[in-house]
Amino acid sequence: MKKLFVTLIALFSIGTFVAVADNDRIIAKESLPHAAQQFISSYFGDVNITYVKEEHGFFEKSYEVVFADGAKVEFARNGDWKEVDCRRSSVPSPIVPDKILKYVKANYPDAKVMLIERDKNDYEVRLSNRLELTFDKAFNIIDIDD
Questions:
Q1: Angle, CA 34 vertex, CA 121 and CA 125 arms, to 5°
Q2: CATH number, position 100
Q3: How does pLDDT run along the chain (146 residues), one tens digit per residue?
């Protein structure tokens, strides 16, 4: 009986954590961190915003901005970009680190960067030719997926 009670409490706790972690809400652009607002103004100032969503995870908060042209940008809690996905056009060049741009231009001159994602350990880039490149923090190529 004691094991059943402990199991039920564990299942209830897990359900509660999942419900709290999926607490997303639509917010105004002005509610974004200042750094995210600046980023949007600098690189997507002429594109209409479809919606801005605040996402709550277990231990982190993040933001997602979706534009009318299909582009999407994800921001960390402090407003730093985590992912830029330009589905119908290329990622603005100033967003992509110079060493990554040089590598792409030298090895895939006809390809454009369509998506860039960064985290603590690496950068992932998807090109218009459907290749996915992974770079370490020093911008050395570490993986190529086709």
A1: 30
A2: 3.40.1420.30
A3: 555 444 445 455 455 444 444 679 999 999 999 999 999 999 999 999 999 999 998 888 999 999 999 999 999 999 999 999 999 899 999 999 999 999 999 999 999 999 999 999 999 999 999 999 999 999 999 999 98
SS3 content of the chain, % helix, strand, coil (to 5): 30, 35, 35
User: Residue 41: how many CA atoms within 13 Å on its side-chain side?
Assistant: 10
Strands of 13-96 (E only): list them.
25-27, 49-56, 61-67, 72-75, 81-85
List, in order, residues 6 or more apart from 141 with CB less than 8 Å away: 103, 133, 134, 135
Tally of structural domains, the chain: 1
